[in-house]
């Protein structure tokens, strides 16, 4: 069982994962955010530092991007949201891993995005995030601002794996 790994083996696996991922290119700072549209759904991806599980070698499941903090990215993303009119019913917010992770998206910036989304006619807001970052306080703040909109927390299969749930790479 992987959850019985000795610390040395665990560290060795971390190093192997980091070595394999070391040549992964960073997303350019010139890209603040990106949009993917399908019907009445829109995915708003924001450039952020990579997932902490990925950065620490604790998870190799996905090949999400390794991005950066981009100055003014959130303002630009908010401007986009302010102009979507009634084009969408569903908006998915994601980053380079977890939109609820403070190191990727500081809470104040997350709430700026949430406040902008609250003013739209979007009915459903999907937050893509490892559940370890989904604290009651954070979700309560978001749900309160989004008021009557449906809020969905989306997370991957990796989050059900005990090691990935238990080890937070602080
Ligand atoms: S925890 Fe999730 S987002 Fe992070 S590397 Fe693993 S699969 Fe990717």
Can you walk through the features of this model?
With 170 residues, the protein is α/β, with parallel strands linked by helices. It has one domain (2-166). Helices cover 34% and strands 16% of the residues. It contains six helices and five strands, in the order H-E-E-H-H-E-H-E-H-E-H. The protein has helices at 7-21, 52-55, 73-82, 107-118, 136-146, 162-166, and strands spanning 33-38, 41-46, 90-94, 124-128, 150-154. A five-stranded mixed sheet has the order 1-2-3-4-5, with helices on one face. Strand 1 and strand 2 form a beta hairpin. The radius of gyration is 17 Å and the shape is globular. The mean pLDDT is 90. The structure holds iron/sulfur cluster.
End-to-end separation in angstroms reads 24 Å
Structural class: alpha/beta
Our count of helices gives 6
Radius of gyration: 17 Å
What is the general shape?
Answer: globular
Note poorly predicted spans.
none
Described by strand count, sense and barrel closure, the largest sheet is: 5 strands, mixed
Helix content: 25-40%
Lateral strand order in the biggest sheet = 1-2-3-4-5
Sketch the topology as an H/E string, one letter per element.
Answer: HEEHHEHEHEH
The number of distinct structural domains comes to: 1
Fraction of residues in β-strands: 15-25%
Number of strands: 5
User: Averaged pLDDT, please?
Assistant: 90
What are the defining features of this structure?
alpha/beta, 5-stranded mixed β-sheet, 16% strand, globular, binds iron/sulfur cluster, 170 residues
């Amino acid at each position: 069982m992987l959850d019985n790994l000795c610390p040395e083996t665990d560290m060795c696996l971390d190093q192997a994962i980091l070595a394999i991922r070391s040549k992964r290119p960073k997303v350019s700072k010139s890209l603040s955010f990106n949009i993917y549209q399908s019907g009445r759904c829109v995915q708003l991806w924001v450039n952020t530092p990579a997932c902490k599980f990925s950065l620490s070698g604790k998870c190799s499941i996905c090949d999400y991007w390794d991005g950066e903090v981009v100055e003014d990215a959130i303002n630009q993303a908010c401007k986009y949201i302010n102009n979507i009119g009634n084009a969408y019913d569903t908006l998915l917010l994601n980053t380079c891993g977890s939109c609820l992770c403070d190191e990727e998206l500081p809470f104040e910036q997350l709430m700026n995005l949430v406040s902008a989304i609250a003013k739209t006619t979007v009915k459903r807001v999907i937050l893509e995030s490892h559940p370890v970052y989904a604290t009651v306080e954070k979700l309560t703040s978001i749900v309160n601002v989004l008021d009557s909109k449906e809020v969905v927390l989306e997370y991957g299969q990796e989050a059900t794996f005990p090691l990935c749930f238990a080890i937070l790479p602080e």
